[in-house]
């Protein structure tokens, strides 16, 4: 999966980028659901880069969203 698709999925599910644009290659996306704050750290240089499997699993876990949302 590419970073562009991952970010679209999390934004469609209520996450917002809380890091200023161009501040760093690590961007934080946050969402509040069921009284809990979820924070995902997304580190990329190009939106067209592929996410490595371990990094993708970690970001999905941080999101608290079901894995099936991220399947093709």
Note down, in words, how this protein is organized.
The structure is a single chain. With 72 residues, the chain is of the alpha+beta class. The chain has one domain (3-62). Helix content is 29%, strand content 25%. It has 2 helices and 3 strands, in the order αβββα. It has helices spanning 3-12, 53-63, and strands at 16-17, 26-33, 36-43. A 3-stranded antiparallel sheet has the order 1-2-3. A hairpin with an 8-residue loop joins strand 1 (16-17) and strand 2. The model has no long low-confidence stretch (mean pLDDT 93).
Distance from N terminus to C terminus (CA atoms, Å) equals: 8 Å
Largest beta-sheet characterization: 3 strands, antiparallel
Order of helices and strands: HEEEH
SS-based structural class? alpha+beta
Pick out the low-confidence regions: none
Total count of helical runs of at least 4 residues: 2
Radius of gyration: 12 Å
Q: Any idea what the shape is?
A: globular
Q: How much of the polypeptide forms β-strand, as a percent range?
A: 25-35%
Average pLDDT figure? 93
> What fraction, in percent, of the residue positions are helical?
25-40%
Number of strands: 3
- Structural domain tally: 1
Largest sheet, order of strands side by side?
A: 1-2-3
């Amino acid at each position: 999966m590419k970073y562009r698709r991952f970010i679209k999925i999390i934004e469609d599910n209520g996450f917002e980028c809380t890091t200023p644009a161009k501040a760093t290659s690590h961007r934080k996306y946050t969402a509040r659901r069921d009284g809990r704050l979820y924070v995902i750290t997304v580190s990329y240089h190009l939106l067209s880069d592929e996410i490595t499997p371990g990094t993708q699993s970690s970001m999905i876990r941080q999101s608290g969203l079901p894995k099936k949302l991220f399947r093709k």
